[in-house]
Amino acid sequence: MFRTRQPTWWSLVATMLVLACTSVTYAQDAPEQQAAERPQLDLSHIPADAFVASVGFPRSVLSRPEMELLPLEILTAVGEQEFGIDPLHIEQVATVGSMPALGQPPQVGFVLHMSQPYAVEAVAAKLAPGAAAQTQNGRTIYAMNQRFGLALHAPDERTLLIAQPDLLGAMADAEESDKLLHSRLKQMDPGADLLVVASIETLRPLLQQGLAQAPIPPQFVELTRLVDLTSTVEIAMSDLQPSFGVLPGKVQINFHGNDAQAAVEIERLLNQGLELARTMLETQILQQMQNPNSDEVQQAMFLYSQRVMGALFKALKPERDERDVKIAVEPGVNAATTGVLVAALLPAVGEARDAARRMESMNKLKQIVLAMVNHESREGHFPTQAIFDEEGKPLLSWRVHVLPFIEEQALYEQFKLDEPWDSEHNRKLIAQMPEIFKSPGAVNLEEGKTVYQVPTGEGTIFEGTEGTTVSEIRDGASNTILVLEVDPEEAVIWTKPDDYEVDFDNPTRGLGGIWQGQFLTVRAQGSGHAVPTTMAADTLKAMFTKAGGER
Q: How far, CA to CA in Å, does 471 sit from each of 89, 220, 298?
């Protein structure tokens, strides 16, 4: 028996995405037949300046004869009980991503076009029990979720909009236009079950900023030019079948270039990327074949992988047509082939995972530096290496001192600042180390230990018991390390006034063990850098000192 409850934000998002992708799972009609059954594409209420939009057609898919064995009765019952909406009545569901003011997280909205009238009050009673109707800019809205600020609005009796109030207003006013997002959606496959368009043009500044900070392997650097050359990336999914072990139908990915010349370069870069991927896979397979412990069956599997991989990359060859460069993935790649390729790809996936962890770790270090910079702005100097008593004895780490600047005021107030880190009271707080001090690259540390430290010693920013001012960093804030990530063996209890003491005779001691010969640093002005341990010792020593005169 299903229990009536208020839907959570995540259950709502998941349900909308499932509805948008329903056709991705089971549709198998020919494109011409789908186009006849599918309702006309409706782009109203999709803001033309959104950075991404997807459109799916649940009702036309679910009403097809081949869907008759699906548990449609259960789907209807769950939809009506949880959301007040029968999924079989949703002709079109669109998901919209919008980029708000700079520094704010993206907003997501949903547009539901129904096949029959719906009473918005009844839907609101399910989605937002007890919420009263409010008037905003002349519109009636219902607040659905106080934490995420979602609201519901019905511009007419067959349309429902769900989003944060700011985006909701833009969606309510949005009309079909000839702008980039709308024009590209209208030019896509008219028989597709799911359409997705991402506006790289809109996202370009954000993507460029992220790429500039990401630790990208040298062989992939040129591929980042795709961001500058591409106007939109589009995905159309159609003729999709539920056959087990086979890629379900046709997927077409299109890179729409800024112009025809950009498309030529996009084609070249995509071919280069595919060739690079193929080379990496072949190298991995070759290494596996050279394993003296592999038997004849394993050797045969490696040979089979090579043969299948050649056929796959041949099928993925991009085709250019004026400003468009398309990659079509046809049905027929079976599960065995997929398994072989996944096995070969595992090392590449591992590298990608490490890159993501490095980026996450770098972001945490930057947040720590931002806290220190905010401290400098308020107090006139960076925090000291420790909280000292009147006699100059270190009691607690700088990590405790910056807690109010990382939204941990409540934790900060629990410390007795006039007692050492290992006093009976303060020791109890070690287990409450904030997530910001946990490195994703050092996963097996003892509870309460961190590898995020500051460089200490003669000439560093954290020398002595007085906080360093910006003017005292005469080598330049952009040239001087403020925080860094050390090896797990150098980890310290986060509350303890203990940090990385620079060995000027061996400045890479205790560094580079997490990221294979690199260690992460953030300079005093906030820029992050992965520093190779092969860097010249004199250069590295200069980066640790604030006024050595090396700049």
A: 66, 39, 64
Say if CB 283 and CB 309 are below 8 A apart: no
Instruction: Count the Cβ atoms, other than its own, within 10 Å of residue 476.
Output: 14
Neighbouring C-beta atoms of residue 200, cutoff 10 Å:
21
What whole-number distance in Å separates Cα of residue 106 and Cα of residue 98?
A: 6
Mean pLDDT over 335-342 rounds to: 50
As a whole number of angstroms, the distance between CA 1 and CA 11 comes to: 18
Q: Residue 21: which residues within 8 A CB-CB, separation 6 or more?
A: 56, 194
Residue pLDDT, tens place only, 381-408: 999 999 999 888 999 999 999 999 999 9
Cα radius of gyration (the chain): 28
d(CA 299, CA 312): 20
The CA dihedral of 179, 182, 187, 188, to the nearest 10 degrees, is 140
Q: Counting Cβ atoms within 10 Å, is residue 4 exposed (0-12), middle (13-18) or buried (19+)?
A: exposed
Question: How far apart (Å, rounded) are the C-alpha atoms in residues 391 and 246?
Answer: 73
pLDDT at 344 over 90: no
pLDDT at residue 461, as a whole number: 93
d(Cα 416, Cα 487) in Å, to the nearest integer? 30
User: Residues near 157 by Cβ (< 8 Å), separated by ≥ 6?
Assistant: 117, 118, 119, 120
The sign of the CA dihedral 400, 404, 410, 414 is positive
What share of residues in the chain are helix, strand, coil (percent, to 5)?
Answer: 40, 20, 35
CA nearest neighbour of 233 among 251, 249, 248, 209: 251
- Cα dihedral angle (438, 444, 449, 451), rounded to 10 degrees? -60
Structural contact between residues 457 and 501, judged by C-beta atoms closer than 8 angstroms: yes
H or E, element range at 358: helix 335-379
Residue 415 is predicted with a pLDDT of: 94
> Concatenated DSSP letters for 373-409?
HHHHHHHSSPPPSEEE-TTS-EEEEHHHHTGGGGT-H
Question: In angstroms, how far apart are the furthest CA atoms of the chain?
Answer: 84
Least Cα distance to 502 among 517, 519, 514 occurs for 519
Global pTM reads: 0.55
Q: How far apart are CA 488 and CA 467, in angstroms?
A: 27
Nearest to 522 by CA among 551, 486, 483, 473: 483
User: Model confidence over 459-511: pLDDT tens digits?
Assistant: 999 998 989 999 899 888 898 999 999 999 999 999 999 999 999 999 999 99
